[in-house]
Design brief:
Layout: H1 9-22, H2 71-82, H3 97-109, H4 120-127, E1 130-136, E2 139-145, E3 150-156, E4 162-165, E5 171-173
Antiparallel strand pairs: 1-2, 2-3, 3-4, 4-5
Amino acid sequence: MAQPGKRGLRTAFVAIALTATTLGFGVVTAGSAAASGSYTGRAFIYGAAGYLDGDWADEGVNNVSTHRHSNATCLWQTILRADGYLAASDVDGIFGDRTHAATVRWQQAHGLYGDGSVGRDTWARAGRKVTDQGPDGDYRWGGYFGIERSFPVMRNRDGGKYGFYDPDGVFRWASYDTRTCG
């Protein structure tokens, strides 16, 4: 399937921004960042429910030894950048020392055990900051609203694969097995 065009992206993202300013994000409680027994084995960050219904609660692990070079890591780094933990130049799809350290800080700030491994609970916690803006053609649009900036995310309606726009504004599918960012 072809990547989505930017048709409607600006309108959808403005609507996302307006929605985010009227929504409050709830207080979160502590929990493990591990993904033990949770990964579905899919090749992409995947969703089927609404964005606010725990869409990222069954994702695989990203860390310095698992899915280290991937677009899923690039998505995680884009999240870290949106929340002020990484610079745009650090978003390269490689889970290295800076990403590990930023992940530990992000987890601790969000009430999780800071192990530096992005597992089920970490993905699920990040997913709480994604808003759903509804369908547009073959895609369901949303946005991640970080502390310092936001970025659009989308999911194809047929297969449930997530995509996102990296800090350079380039669309990426959030694959565990390929790396095109950097």
